[in-house]
């Protein structure tokens, strides 16, 4: 029987139980992909990660990321949460304030800035929707999109749509059955929506729905927020919310995630804090 160290880290918050949890399995060498998927299904969190030695000398560690149903090449909140976990566990130390994480999307840079971790996001690509797909999306959302939606690919593929304002985002009740069918047909993780806020606390509210991956609603989604930032770039809105902004997410689930976005030329940096809520060990046959 193999015993491995385990942390459950809350991401995009400094307050325990207000962000998005990720399960982080440390020293995961020797665990098969099948067992990784089994553990991820058991934790039943939006993502579970497994920390491994890097296969490239250019990286500090390697990360495999699983939803309850599938492996992902990249995801934002698991990357930030896992970086917090490996630093806290003493597995790696920053080199000139930076970490290099190997994952399915390649080798990614993270900047350690006090208690905030900044992720240099993968380059995004976009795909237009057909008119019929836009109509189906609006049937799922039960409201019209403010601008033309796009599929944004940052490793995970999100269908991104802007709604009228933050209030419309907060009130959303999507049709999960149709969304699951459309997600499978378009090979997307799900739908991320956003709307501009006017409350002095954040630039926008964001919500991410991924029922095809077993996640009805992701509490606070890193890749979803990266995709929103990329959508702003791809749709010609540039720095509509400035060189940097804060998005809120998760209020409908009793959370209050604070996601920071920063633009550096064409690059998008995702920032957030994290706090460990659970520490222990897992026993695997």
Walk me through this protein's architecture:
It is a single chain. This protein has 285 residues and is of the alpha+beta class. The protein folds into two domains: 2-121 and 272-284, Diaminopimelate Epimerase, Chain A, domain 1, CATH 3.10.310; 125-265, Diaminopimelate Epimerase, Chain A, domain 1 (Roll), CATH 3.10.310. Helices cover 22% and strands 39% of the residues. The protein has six helices and 18 strands. The protein has helices at residues 33-43, 76-88, 131-141, 166-170, 176-186, 222-234; strands at residues 2-11, 20-25, 48-52, 61-66, 71-72, 98-103, 106-113, 116-120, 125-128, 150-153, 157-162, 190-196, 204-210, 215-218, 244-249, 257-264, 267-272, 274-284. A hairpin with an 8-residue loop joins strand 1 and strand 2 (20-25). The longest helix has 13 residues, at 76-88. 48% of the residues are buried.
């Amino acid at each position: 029987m193999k015993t491995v160290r385990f942390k459950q880290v809350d991401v995009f918050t400094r307050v325990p139980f207000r962000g998005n949890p990720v399960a982080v399995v440390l020293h995961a060498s020797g665990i098969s992909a099948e067992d990784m998927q089994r553990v991820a299904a058991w934790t039943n969190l939006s993502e579970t990660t497994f920390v491994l030695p890097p296969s490239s000398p250019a990286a500090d560690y390697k990360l495999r990321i699983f939803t309850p149903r599938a492996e992902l090449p990249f995801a934002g909140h698991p990357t930030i949460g896992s970086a917090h976990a490996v630093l806290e566990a003493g597995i790696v130390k920053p080199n000139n304030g930076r970490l290099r994480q190997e994952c399915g999307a390649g080798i990614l840079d993270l900047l350690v800035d006090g208690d905030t971790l900044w992720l240099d996001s993968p380059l995004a690509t976009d795909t237009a929707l057909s008119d019929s797909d836009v109509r189906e999306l609006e049937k799922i959302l039960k409201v019209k999109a403010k601008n033309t939606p796009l599929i944004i690919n940052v490793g995970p593929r999100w269908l991104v749509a802007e709604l009228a304002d933050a209030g419309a985002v907060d009130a959303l009740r999507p049709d999960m059955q149709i969304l699951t069918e459309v997600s499978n047909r378009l090979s997307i993780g799900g739908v991320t929506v956003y709307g501009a806020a006017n409350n002095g606390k954040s630039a926008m509210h964001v919500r991410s729905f991924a029922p095809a991956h077993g996640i009805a609603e992701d509490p606070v989604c890193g890749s979803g927020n990266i995709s929103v930032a990329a959508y702003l770039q791809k749709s010609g809105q540039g720095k509509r919310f400035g060189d940097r902004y804060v998005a809120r997410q998760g209020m409908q689930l009793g959370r209050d995630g604070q996601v920071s976005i920063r633009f550096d030329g064409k690059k998008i940096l995702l920032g957030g804090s994290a706090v460990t809520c659970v520490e222990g060990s897992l026993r695997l046959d």
